[in-house]
Each structure stands twice: as structure tokens, then as C-alpha cells.
Request: fold
Amino acid sequence: MDIEWGAVVVGFILSIVLGAIFAVIIPAVGSVIGLILAGMVVGYMVGGTAGNGMANGAVSGLFGAIVLSILMLIFGTIILGILGFAAATVTLIFLFIAFFGVMILMAIGGAIGAMIKGEA
Reply:
């Protein structure tokens, strides 16, 4: 399974954009739909087997989790100093658990997208 970083970056950006748009349109499940659609795009872009799409979708979700974590720590510290760092750290512990959910949703979407393309 090769990781295609172009597709991973596209999936990361789409997960933010589609997750936000669908969350506003459909408040209860919109972000889940946006994440699965972003994963499907990643899986379709990489093609191959469902496992290949799943791996790339999961990496895309994990990439988004890492970037969001770093940004929260930086801006929390800049805005509120040591108190902001502490608050961001505690928040990130809970968010990190949620990031595994994002990674799983994008992996499922990636598998579906790869199966839709159907190269293998």
C-alpha cells in the first residue's frame, strides 16, 4: 500500500471544508457525512484495492488530527499563555480520542471510494 500524499492533502482540506459545510446544513450528522465523502474522494483518487483507499483515507484523517492539535496548542498558548497551553492540552486529550473516530470514518470512505473506482 503506497501513500499518495497529494490525495492525502486533498482529503485533509476536503474534510475540513465538507465537514464544516455539512455540519451547518445537517446539524446532527452533517460532519460525519462530510468526512465520509472526503474519504471517498481520497479513495477514488488513489484507486487500487479497498485496503489502499482505506489506508490513504486513514492517513488523511490522522494528518488532519495532528495539524489541528498543533494549531490548538500554538494559538492557545499565544492567546492565553500558560493557562491557554494547559487548557489546550486538556482539550486535546479528549479531541485525540475523537480523532480516531475521524480516522475510522475517512478510512471507510476511502475503501468505498476505491471500490467505486474499481481498478483492482
In short: The radius of gyration is 15 Å. The mean pLDDT is 86. The chain has three helices and no strands. The longest helix spans residues 50-117.
